[in-house]
From TrEMBL:
This is Uncharacterized protein. Keywords: Hydrolase, Signal. Residues 1-16 form the signal peptide. It comes from Candidatus Ordinivivax streblomastigis. One of its GO terms (biological process) is carbohydrate metabolic process. GO terms for molecular function: hydrolase activity. Pfam families: Glyco_hydro_88.
Length: 127
């Protein structure tokens, strides 16, 4: 009897939630407006570590892989939005990094420039 009651409660719960008519639908213009705010904030507040600190093996510098992920995303946003200020910001990042791959692993011959972390900047340059 307890099992039947359990399944009945589950069925009623599932049915009640599936009949709910209050849904919040996001509209494309609202999403793009919010994305523009995020991109603007990222560009205004962008900072990076210029040298390593204890606990940071290689995630520092303007050409760190963690920053390259941001740059690639920002390029996708610039392409989607047509925002020329975003493209200019990215171009300045390239100039500051001298369009070079990171060399955080240069002292480790088995990694060298072929470590995936180092190649992230190359993906940004190709974007």
């Amino acid at each position: 009897m307890k099992i039947a009651c359990f399944f009945l409660c589950c069925f009623i719960g599932c049915f009640a939630t599936s009949c709910s008519t209050t849904q919040h639908t996001l509209k494309q213009p609202a999403v793009k407006a919010q994305m523009a705010k995020v991109a603007d904030w990222q560009m205004r507040h962008f900072k990076y570590r210029k040298e390593a600190s204890p606990g940071y093996l290689h995630d520092y510098g303007i050409n760190a892989w963690t920053n390259a992920v941001l740059y690639i995303g920002m390029e996708k946003w610039a392409n989607l939005s047509g925002d020329s200020t975003c493209y200019q910001w990215l171009y300045n990042i390239g100039r500051k990094s001298k369009w070079k791959l990171a060399e955080n692993f240069i002292q480790i011959p088995s990694y060298g420039i072929y470590h995936a972390d180092e190649l992230c900047m190359g993906q940004f340059y190709l974007a």
